[in-house]
Amino acid sequence: MNDLVELLKHRRLTISSVESFTGGLFGARLCDIPGVSEVYRGTLTAYNESVKSDWLDLDPIWLQSVGTISADCAKALAIQGRLRFHSDVCVALTGNAGPTALEGQAVGQWYACIALGERLIEISRIDHLERNALRHHAVEVVALILGEALREVG
User: By the 8 A CB rule, do 14 and 39 touch?
Assistant: First the structure.
């Protein structure tokens, strides 16, 4: 996460996150880094479907049709989060950390989307880990993928 913050600073990019199953963990990990206020705009923990629709203007009927645990939902969260936070980058994570299947999605299924400017980087994974290990793992995976994308930008 330290490297990610340094890359964002170097490129003068701001970051935000919209998180569901990770419960704000991505944002909390960013806040562990001294000096992150140069780049960090904030996090919306949108754990409940109504928060996703009310705060991010996502149509509740659309959300029910695609599911809150879906690639489409992650993409919408990232796009809307970037707009709402006025950030250059927004990371969105949604998934099923268990203990039971939800919306037809297996425990361990998670989706993320990184809105890096107009570019969207979509991630779909299923990892068979304990609930909190899964949350931490997802945050690390997304941070690594975002770091790689920022290095590619130059």
Answer: yes
Q: Give the pTM.
A: 0.96
Q: How many CB atoms lie within 10 A of CB 41?
A: 19
Specify the pLDDT at position 154: 62
Alpha-carbon distance of 63 to 69, in angstroms, equals 9
What does the mean pLDDT of the chain come to?
Answer: 96
The rounded distance, in Å, linking the Cα atoms of 132 and 85 is 27
Question: CATH second-level architecture of 2-153?
Answer: Alpha-Beta Complex (3.90)
- Can you list the positions of beta strands (E) in 83-138? 89-95, 109-116, 119-126
